[in-house]
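To the structural biology subgroup,

Please find below the input and predicted structure for GNAT family N-acetyltransferase, which we are adding to the shared reference set this quarter. The sequence is reproduced verbatim from the submission form. If anyone notices a discrepancy with their own records, reply to this email rather than editing the shared folder directly, so we keep one authoritative version.
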Amino acid sequence: MDPSFPNLETPNLVLREIVDADATDLFRIHGDAEHMKWFGSDPLADIEGARKLVQMFSKWREEPASGTRWGLQLRSTPGLIGTCGLFRWNRNWKTCVVGYEISPLHQGRGYMKEALAAAFTWGFEAMALNRIEAMVHPDNQGSLALLKRFGFAEEGRLRQVGYWAGSHHDLMLHALLKQEWKA
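Predicted structure (tokenized):
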């Protein structure tokens, strides 16, 4: 593990670096086609794809316009239940994009809200962000409701901006400004 990785803790979760040992948990989440239908990429086909995903998330911190992806782990139980991250970081504009997913077994328990609250606070403080953007499929009601609870404003529809599962998809653009953030 990288000692400089920004580990975060919440009452129920540890947000930590994603490591090679997490590949099986990532495959369990990212290999589920039904669950990943809103994620913006095709589901992983095998464990090797999960290992490559671990490496991609690791390299984000080294790239000038990337960001950080945390593994979400329950404080009381080893293993990942999901991930969240701030990426496509534009340091000059002080903006980034948020992405997240959680295993179906852990949905509806408030864990993602808890994780994102910690990530947003860290982003506004440590990354000096002024704006966090989210691009969400218009049919992903759970994600849209989560963003609304945080105060994200809907800014419009990006027509056919995404491509996965063999077709183009519209995404809704939402944003949260630092001045609107209430930790």
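Summary notes: The chain has one domain: 8-180. The longest strand covers residues 153-164.

Regards,
Lab coordination
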